[in-house]
Amino acid sequence: MRRIGHRGAMGHAPENTIESFEKAIALGCDEIETDVWLAGDTALVISHDPPPSGATLLSLDEVLDLCRGRVGVNVELKCEHDETRARRTGAVAAARIAARGETDVYVSSFWWSALAGAREAAPGIRRAFAFNDSPDPHALVTSARALGLWALHPNRAYVTPELVAAAHGASLKVNVWTVNEPAEIAAFAALGVDGIMSNWPERVPKS
């Protein structure tokens, strides 16, 4: 099972900061999750919420430079109310990751259109669908396979044995978010999930 630091290690340091990413690396994470927005036409900036105009934010390149050769990165593609913008975000991010030759970096998103844009721009970049509801597992897996996804990223409240079995039957990984309580972490480990995102990633056992 993969130990995944949520926005770095945000239980220990401010989210999506160099300090938080360094803490996640120090805590032995296999990968970190971070949030990326498309600012303007090509700039990719790190922020969980929509980036304020004129704000100075970390860039995706800065985070990938920090993490390269040290820890994997799950780049969550963010967008608001705009399928076209989501698709563009996916395309720009995937193209940037591919151009850098990153092999331990992948993209995830709540937006199918962002994942489709990523596939069109850089088919070799792995993609994962994040969700916060209770879809039919078999319909979800069918859609995920049609888009050539690598993984599913369910909210912890919607993980079931049926979902895990359906995903694994289709060769899809299951990485759960955001799980902080040790008893719940143990329960998901027993279900056989592939990774757990946590604000306190040191609580997640590695295998």
Describe the structure concisely for a colleague:
The protein is 36% helix and 22% strand.
Structure write-up:
The protein has 207 residues and is an alpha/beta fold. The protein has one domain: Phosphatidylinositol (PI) phosphodiesterase (TIM Barrel), CATH 3.20.20. The chain contains 7 helices and 9 strands. The protein has helices at residues 18-26, 60-67, 83-100, 112-121, 137-146, 161-169, 182-191, and strands spanning 2-6, 31-39, 43-46, 72-77, 105-109, 127-131, 151-154, 173-176, 195-198. The protein has an 8-stranded parallel β-barrel, surrounded by 6 helices. Helix 4 links the parallel strand 5 (105-109) and strand 6. Helix 3 runs parallel beside helix 4 (112-121).
Averaged pLDDT, please?
A: 97
Calculate Rg over CA atoms.
Answer: 16 Å
Continuous helix count: 7
Low-confidence runs: none
Biggest sheet architecture: 8 strands, parallel, barrel
Task: Name the CATH architecture.
Answer: Alpha-Beta Barrel
Briefly, what CATH class?
Answer: Alpha Beta
Structural class: alpha/beta
β-sheet strand percentage: 15-25%
Order of helices and strands: EHEEHEHEHEHEHEHE
Strand order of the largest sheet: 1-2-4-5-6-7-8-9
Q: What's the total number of strands? A: 9
Q: Domains counted in the coordinates: how many?
A: 1
Question: Per the principal axes of the C-alpha atoms, what is the gross shape?
Answer: globular
In CATH terms, the superfamily is Phosphatidylinositol (PI) phosphodiesterase
- Tell me roughly what share of residues is in helical segments: 25-40%
CATH fold category name: TIM Barrel
Distance between the termini: 5 Å
